[in-house]
Specification:
- This protein is an alpha/beta fold.
- 36% of the residues lie in helices and 12% in strands.
- The protein is built from 6 helices and 5 strands.
- It has helices spanning 22-32, 46-52, 59-69, 76-82, 117-128, 153-165, and strands spanning 6-9, 41-42, 73-74, 104-109, 135-140.
- The strands form 2 sheets. Strands 1-4-5 form a 3-stranded parallel sheet, sandwiched between helices. It has a two-stranded antiparallel sheet with strand order 2-3.
- Helix 1 runs antiparallel to helix 2.
- The longest helix has 13 residues, at 153-165.
- The protein starts with 5 loop residues before the first strand and ends with a helix.
Length: 168
């Protein structure tokens, strides 16, 4: 049977997703600046967090989000996404032609620096090539990468739930 509906919010690039905007490189630079970061956790400063995650909210909300959610994270996924089209053995690959894939909604934040709309849109274009599955794209106006944790998160959650309910 079909798989469950999926909502991919600001999905990381995978093999075949070509756009690599400067903002995405800048947001990933704290991890990418050293190859050793592929094997360790890296932390963002408050300014890096604001640029990469909370650029679409006010300074005080950005700082509150940083204080609540920022934590050192593994660098490996950043390296995998950045090199998805260079590494023939990449783990960052997706079977976009899977016949069993359920409906998928890809959500992008209009002002997202980490996964800019061009990247999310390219992922959507790859997914919609699967003619056996529903693929939809939603651009969240004025939203950044923190769209699931900031003051507008409820709106994103309601949109995602509405999509899923159409297929239940």
């Amino acid at each position: 049977g079909l798989s469950a509906a999926t909502v991919a919010i600001a999905p990381a690039p995978f093999r075949g997703v070509i756009p690599l905007p400067v903002s995405a490189l800048r947001a990933a630079w704290p991890a990418l600046r050293s190859p050793a970061n592929a094997r360790r956790r890296t932390a963002l400063t408050a300014a890096q967090f604001r640029y990469g995650f909370a650029n679409a909210v006010g300074a005080s909300e950005s700082q509150a989000l940083f204080d609540e959610y920022a934590a050192p994270a593994p660098g490996r996924p950043i390296f995998q996404a950045a090199g998805a089209n260079l590494d023939p053995w990449t783990e960052a690959r997706v079977d976009t032609r899977a016949a069993h894939r359920g409906p998928m909604l890809i959500v992008a934040g209009e002002r997202d620096h980490t996964v800019p709309p061009a990247v999310a849109r390219a992922a959507f274009e790859r997914q919609k090539s699967n003619r056996q599955a529903v693929s939809e794209y939603m651009l969240a106006p004025g939203r950044g990468h923190s769209l699931t944790i900031d003051s507008g998160a409820r709106e994103i959650a309601e949109s995602a739930l509405s999509f899923i309910q159409r297929f239940v």
